[in-house]
Structures are given as structure tokens and as C-alpha cells.
Records
---
Amino acid sequence: MLNDFFNDNYKSLLLLLGSLTVLLVSYFIVLKILRKLGKNPKYLIPPSSVKKVSTPIFFILLSILIRMGSLRQLLGLTHLELYFRKASTLLFIFAFTWLLITVIQIIKEHVMHTYDMNTSNNLRARKVATQFNILERIIIFIIIILAAGIALMSFDSIREIGVSIFASAGVAGIIIGFSAQKMIGTILAGIQIAIAQPIKLDDVVVVEGEWGRIEEITLTYVVVKIWDKRRLILPTTYFIDKPFQNWTKSSADILGTVFLYTDYSVPFDAIRKELTRILKGTELWDGEVNNIQVTDSKVNSVEIRALMSAKDSSTAWDLRVHVREKLITFLQQNYPESLPRTRLRLENMEGSGNTTHE
């Protein structure tokens, strides 16, 4: 009997050591392959990414080791087989979920590394970043829900409870569906934004009368960074249901306008030449649009619109401010009589003539 006991333990030890050796060799082979791919420019897996996946892979192999009967027999815990199997299952689900989430994040980082968000013409980069940020959250959310469900269903008692709940969940499902309608609508709006992209990260928008940039897009809300550093938080459904201005929907370049109100005696050609001189003297202008137009005539003044272009909305704002100041200074110094004025006609009833004052 004693010899049989030692023989069984000896076989279990050998089997355990053999299995452990296989697992360790497999672990290091996987890491070796990942590191080799990291040195290949075609794949370019950073060393930090290899470290991220190494830990969940280790726990996956550990769950396999825990499930082995030889380990329980060697430890003299064969009566705890059920607990070892449950622990192995839960550890495997946890590690595999961790690995999937890490791989998704690595793929996102790898893709976004090829796009530069800091360039002036970053439309493509903003499109990709928006899609990946929203879809990443959706996929991770689904993975976690599925993993939690699989983990809970691995327990027989919980599975029985789940079956009974599903069997009597008709009315409850309808009630929950109505209660969660708004939340589901918000999540679907987030998915729609990721696909249709009415807004993208770093888009310039005018929302609720505020000018700002899209700073963050989640499944349920959008953060708009206002020009004065305030943050406007809006539900994702807002950008599906309500109208708003998107200044960078298809391109970053934009036209800027400056309105001047002058007297009828103003020389339009002189203003055109001055606008050209001002635009050529600043780096804010992109060299595309340069125009002066008389857009309206009122009783006491005419409306002049200076039209110019810039590479993006922030530059266009600075250019408009610059041009407005320079044109007003030009009129003050060279044509002060062309500034707006009010004319008053006085009639001398006792005299023979009329008098006009300005």
C-alpha cells in the first residue's frame, strides 16, 4: 500500500513537472515570437505591449495548471476537485478577458500611432480616432458583460436561477425595456456617431451658442471644450436629434469675414489694396481668398465685407481680429471723412438758404 502511494505520488510529480515544463516553454515561446514581431517593422509591436500581454498569458497557463489532477493528487487535495475546477475556470475567464481587452487596446495604439493629430490637416486622423475610441468602449463593454455572464453561468445554482428568471421574465423584460429605453437610445446614438461621424474628436463646433472643440466622445456623453476653457457636457443623442454647427466636418480650412460700416464717400479700391497688403503681411492668411464686397447700403452708411481664408478656425479668428484693427486704423489715418457720420439738415425759415451740418 505504501509503495503504491509513493508510486502514485511519484507519477503525479513527474506528470506535474512535465506539464509545468511544457507550459513554461510554451509561455516563453509565445513571448519570443511577440518580441521578434516587435522588431519587424511590418508588425511593429512595442516592447511595452509585449509586457502587457505577458501577464494575462501567464494566468491562462496557470489556470490550466490548476485544473490538472496531478497537482491535486500531489497536494493531497483530491477531495477538493470541484473547487479547483471552478477556480481554474474563473481564472481562465478572467485572464482571457484581460488578454482580449489588452489586445484591443494595443491594436488601437498601433493604428493611432500612424496618424498625427497635431497637424493642421488632421481630418483623417480625427475620423479614425473617433471611430476607435467609441468602438473600443463598445467592444470592451460587450466582452466584460459576456465574461461576467459566462463566469456566473459556470455555477449550477446560478444557472438554475437564471433559467427560472428567463422563464418568467416576459412582463419584467417589457418593464425593464421601457425603463432602459433612454439609456439604450443614448448608447445607440454613440454607435451612430462612430459610424456616421457627424462629429469627430477635435472638431470645431458651435453648440448652444458656444464655440468650442470636441474633446471627448463616449458612449453616453460628449465633452465640448469651450474657448475659455469651460467644458460643456452633452448627451450623445444631442448630436443626433438637434442641429448644430460643425466648422470642420469635411476640412479644417475656413473663411473669415470682417464687416465695416463707413460713409458713402469711402474709396472702395483703396480698401481693396489695403486688405491685400495686410493679408500678404501676415502668416495667418493661407493665400486662398482675398476679397472686398459692398454687401448693404443703409441711410447713413454702407456695409463693407472683407472676406479672407485661413487654415483653421482658430487662425481665422486671429486673422479677422488683425484685419479689422488694421482696416479701421487705415481709415482713421487716411480717410477720416469716410468714417460713419450723421448728417443733419437745418432749414432757416427767415433766411434765404439752407444749412447742412454733419
---
Amino acid sequence: MKVCLTGGIACGKSLLSRYLRELGAETLDADDVVHELLPDPEKRRRIAAEVFADPGKRRALEARLHPLVKERISRWMEGGDGRLRIAVVPLLFEVHWERNFDIICCVVSERSMQIERMTSTRGYTREEAESRLAAQMPVEEKAARSHYAIRNDGTPGQLKEEAAKFIAWLKEHRK
């Protein structure tokens, strides 16, 4: 069963992924693959500032990176020892990869919570946060297109409980 976790920026995908790993799943995050391809964090930050200010440049960069990321995730999904593997693909619907997965889970947060997380924990200005949100499909639309949705506006403990519920749901729906 090919499972994907998606959601908006600063909705809690990384924390949810950690909880899913604690529950026995393996995860591979598309953002980590991009970091492998562009290992210099300062260069990534400069590129991000440039491409989020220019949609044409963003599309050109995505045209180069996305095929490499997709191929890496596809190879990883085919491997393994039978354990549950979950690909984390933030831009799943934007890049039209949803047909590659049997189950899609979306983690969702209120927009105000996303902005708060981006400005307080990632150091973005409000304008940078808004720019990144504008570049993605709204999380509620992603949730509506997913098989399963997890709301993350509460505590980390509540998100951990939701991770356990999702794993149980997957076991019921395993092919």
C-alpha cells in the first residue's frame, strides 16, 4: 500500500512524521530529498527568497527538481522490508502526484496558526509566510481531496493521539 502524507506549510507534517515513525512506520520527506539535492542551507534560503518572489523562476526550479524528487520517492516506496512506508509530499496535489498513492492523509491547521508557526519558529516575516502560503493550494482543499485528514491546532500530545488513530485506520484499510 502506497501511503502519502501531505498538508500545508507549518501544519505539523514533520512532527506527525516523527510520531508515525515512533509507531513503526518509515517515512521519506520530499523536502529532505530537496535538501540532498541542494545541501547548502544558505543557498537554499537565497533560492527560496528569489523563487517565491518570482513565479516564473519558481516554476523553472520545480521543473528541474520535481522529477528527481519523484523518482527518488518512487524507488524508496518500492523497497523496504514490508513495513509501512509513508512518503511526505507537501506539494502532492500541486504537482499532480496523487495518482501515485493508494492512501493520502492531509494534516491541516488554521491559517493563523500556520503564520504564527512560520514567524515564531522559522524566522519568516509575515510577508514571507504569506508568500509561501499563497504558493500552495489551501489546506482545506488538500484535505477535501485526501482519504484521511488530521487537524493539528492543538497540543503535540493530541497530534500524537491522531497519529495512532491514523495507523489504526491504515491497518483496517490495508490491501
---
Amino acid sequence: MAKEFLHDWQKKSLEHEKSYKQFLAKADKKKVLKILPEIHEEAVNAVNCLNCAACCKNYSPRFKPPDIKRISKYLHMKEGVFIEKYLKIDEEGDFVVISKPCPFLGADNYCSIYDMRPSDCARFPYTDEDVLIKRTKLTLKNVTFCPIVYFVLEKLIVAGGGKGG
């Protein structure tokens, strides 16, 4: 069933963009947060991230100071050397990877620093937390490349997570 549900998800996510915007604008936060854990769990069980890795191939997480400290220590590098080798500052003033795909992504879609990965990576795709409805712009971007976000939004809309729905 999940396989059929996810068939042509990218095309459908573009077609449903307006309904996602409307849903996120009107969503009953309490209702959504109550049903979100179950839908998130269903989504992560339906989608194998190792088959996709679009997030790691096309985007960069923010590397916050604790991430830089932890990862550089793990890689036995000085923080400054780690920053110089792998990171740049983006237009929002955040440290992000210099190159795409992420330099820590292997050909097999496994992350070479998975246990030490940045907190943004560990939290992605934010489908088990209030970021999903609080940061509408981010969610609308993520749904275009992440089948888990698509799955969760579609299920939330069907479950009626809107106001009075």
C-alpha cells in the first residue's frame, strides 16, 4: 500500500503545493502534534532513506558550533581545519558544506559521520516535531525532495488536522 501511495510522489507534491500551503496555514497545532508521531513512524517505515539521500545530495544542514566541535574531534581535526576544508558561510550566516553532495555521503548513500552528524541532519525531515507546521516555508521546500515529508503531509490532510476538521 505504501508503495502505491508513494508512486509519483514528486509529481503529486508539486500538484498539491497549494493544498499543503492552505493546510499548514490553518492546521490545528494541537491536533496535528497529537497524530504526528504515528504518521511519522508510518512514513519512516515506508521510505528507505538510503534509496534516496536527496537531502544529502542537494542541500546542506547548518553546522552549529557544537556540531563543528563534535565532528572535528571525531575526525581528529582542529576545528579551524575542519571549517576550512568542509564549510563555508551561507547568506544567512550559517556554516554549511562547501560542496554538493555532502562530502560525508558515500556512494552507497551512507553517511561516514552518521553517529556524529549535525543536529539538523539528526532531526531531518522534522516530521516528528512542530517545525513541520511552524516553519511552513521549510516544510514546503522539503516536500519537493523528501518522500517522508510528502507521506506525512498527505496523511495529515486525510486525517483532518485542520481547524475544526
